[in-house]
Amino acid sequence: MEILVCVKNVPDTGEEEIELDGNDLDYDELTYVVNEWDNYAVEEAIQIADKVGGNVTVITVGNEDADEVLRREMAMGAGKAIHLEDEAFEKSDAKGVATILKAAVDKGKYDLILTGAQADAGYGAVGGMLAAMLDYPYASLVNKIEAGSGKLTVGREIEGGNTEMNEIELPCVLSIQTGINEPRYVGIKGIKQVSGVDIPKFAASDLGLDESSVGEEGAIVKRQDYFIPEAGEGAEMLEGSDDEIIAKLIEILKANGGL
Amino acid sequence: MAQFFAYVQHADGVIEDTAAELAAAAKAMGADSVTAIVTGSGVDAAASAAGEFFNEVYKIDNAALAYPNAEVVRKAVAAVVPAGSVVLMSHGTFAMDMGPGLSVKTNSAYIADVTGIDGVDGTTLKVVRTELGGNISTHVNADLANGAVVTLRPGAVEAVSGGVGGAVVDKSGDAGDLSAKRKFIEIVAPAAGGVDITKAEILVSIGRGIEEEDNIELAMGLKEAIGSKAEVSCSRPIVDAKWLEPARQVGTSGKTVKPNVYLALGISGSFQHLGGIKGGIIIAVNKNPNAPIFQVADYGIEADILEFIPALTEKINDL
């Protein structure tokens, strides 16, 4: 089975307060990491290839910094990587990214294409768009995959902790939900081993793409800014020394039958 | 002006509450009239229920639509909406499955998980949504020249009241080819047994702020200190990391809970998590003062839970 996994490098915002520089992110304060969902997708691809045979290729649309993410996923076990890089790709909307990926998919032959269920912008759109452009079947939020002959049995995470089981024909596109597996640890040694690997790069012209169909020019959905919404009524913040705060909290717990 | 449609989800003849929010969202985008689309097999009850909130209801009745398989429903919806239409859906696991592909097949813009609508200026739709796990907001403009598929976060807009009385139009004959390469098999419910967090009066609920598996003990210690009324629950990342079992997860993809007190410790407050909390007093402890959880909590404490939990546990044990 030839498996392609679409990955993305995203700002590592963690649980810390996000710093803004005017109406944009403060990029000096940000480090980039692989999108959390994508790690699960790569792990799943490796496990499928181990089980039924095949190869795993990781692909990304991104600037030169995205190289690090591709090498990290190769260190996990992906055999090949493809880097789609062009200034014309910058500020693509989801449809632009799917258009670029579609052009790259057309140059290869893949049975299964995986994406993370969502990334930093939270649209969760690229996988579904790519599938529709390719006329492949699609399933989102996949948390279980069993490989069969010419088809897969996949579970989708739906509301209420339920799983929706489907049979899906190959080739297909699946978006992978977190928790489907336990992504393997990647050590510095593993990353060093792939540091010299040549990763092919493709620009818009290599993919036969009209530059005006992608990037900022092609985008029909455009983010205007980042902002921190004005706090509404919100919570009553408990203030004071640690002891005072804890005393107030204990009173609230007592008043509500908690202690 | 584009034509406005809302895809209305339903089960057992009852439409989802979000239908009235979709009607309200279309109005906020300047729609004079909104058409509901109801698909399924034997959907007369749901279709007439949708007429309560919409000016018109397209009914697509076909055995192939008995279960809402996104690939099949997408074909049916794409077949009945004219080019340039705006199609609204409630943002959930079905919309995530169908929306992106529908926008490709209708050659329209896709705007997901909208939390606010600023209106339409010419052919530009102006909305608000969040990024980076809900921790920051953005204004987004979308060109409506070729229409759009918009998914709306549940609860983002105030629902319209009913009484519209829209007539049902049978569009079943227009659905076209409904064959699919993906087939629905069954719904599998989560395994029963184990801990039942829905019965606890106090939930000591932990999120990413707990940082390491070894720190789960802190939450367990606080639960022990409070006593038998308490149980430990968590947000999704804790279950993904396999630090706690799925039965302890609160949220739309986990359990719905209604304790007297919900102690949200190191939980930022994604809408999927908040969707699982249906009552009680929420007390949030988080080191990020901008964490969304503080917008919905009754009481907030800005603190690092790794220091706060042991301090609170000690004080309760001293009582």
What do these coordinates show?
The complex is a heterodimer of chains A (259) and B (319). Chain A is an alpha/beta fold. Chain A has one domain: HUPs (Rossmann fold, 3-Layer(aba) Sandwich). Chain A has helices spanning 36-52, 66-76, 94-106, 126-134, 188-193, 215-218, 242-255, and strands at residues 2-6, 9-11, 20-21, 24-25, 32-34, 55-61, 80-84, 112-116, 138-147, 151-157, 163-169, 172-176, 201-202, 221-223, 236-237. In chain A, helix 3 (94-106) packs across helix 4. Chain B folds into two domains: 4-174, HUPs (Rossmann fold, 3-Layer(aba) Sandwich); 197-318, 3-Layer(aba) Sandwich (Rossmann fold). Helix content of chain B is 25%, strand content 30%. Chain B has nine helices and 17 strands. Chain B has helices at 18-28, 44-50, 70-80, 93-105, 216-226, 236-240, 271-274, 293-296, 305-318, and strands at 4-7, 10-11, 14-15, 34-40, 56-61, 86-90, 109-121, 124-131, 136-143, 148-152, 167-170, 182-188, 202-206, 230-234, 261-265, 281-286, 299-302. In chain B, the strands form three sheets. Chain B has a nine-stranded mixed beta sheet, sandwiched between helices. In chain B, strands 14-13-15-16-17 form a five-stranded parallel beta sheet. Classes of the chains: A alpha/beta (259), B alpha/beta (319). At the A-B interface, helix 3, helix 4, strand 9, strand 10 and strand 11 of A face helix 4, strand 7, strand 8, strand 9 and strand 12 of B. Strand 14 of chain A pairs antiparallel with strand 9 (136-143) of chain B.
